[in-house]
Specification:
The protein contains no helices and eleven strands. Strands 2, 4, 5, 6, 9, 10 and 11 form a seven-stranded mixed beta sheet that branches. The chain has a four-stranded antiparallel beta sheet with strand order 1-3-8-7, with no helix packed on it.
């Protein structure tokens, strides 16, 4: 059974940082593209970052987060993380990790002064 569990969300002031982690069981994350999405009420989810490992490391980011967010993997722990830096109020959302058709329940990130 594949399970994805996100952690690390919270309340942070503008300009602050958070590190989100997605713990994966039931599937070896290295073999697949891993993604982070976010969603705000009344809006569709949007992909924030992706990490593709096969054939070499490759990452992609939404324009809104380039230079501020970094996706990374820990192969030994089978986790994928998202470092959020220089956070802005518009980054407030529930953040989800995703692999294939599997999703976690999400972790809330709130950026507010």
């Amino acid at each position: 059974q594949v399970q994805l569990v996100e952690s690390g969300g919270g309340l942070v002031k503008p300009g602050g940082s958070l590190r989100l982690t997605c713990a994966i069981t039931g599937i070896t994350a290295t073999n697949y593209r891993m993604n982070w999405y976010r969603q705000t009420p009344g809006h569709e989810s949007e992909v924030v970052a992706g990490s593709w490992q096969i054939g070499g490391s490759d990452t992609s980011y939404a324009d809104a987060v380039k230079g501020r967010f970094t996706i990374s993997r820990d192969i030994a722990k089978n986790t994928v993380s998202l470092q959020l830096s220089n956070l802005r109020p518009e980054d407030t959302a529930v953040y989800f990790c995703n692999v294939l058709a599997f999703w976690g329940r999400g972790t809330q990130v709130t950026v507010s002064s």
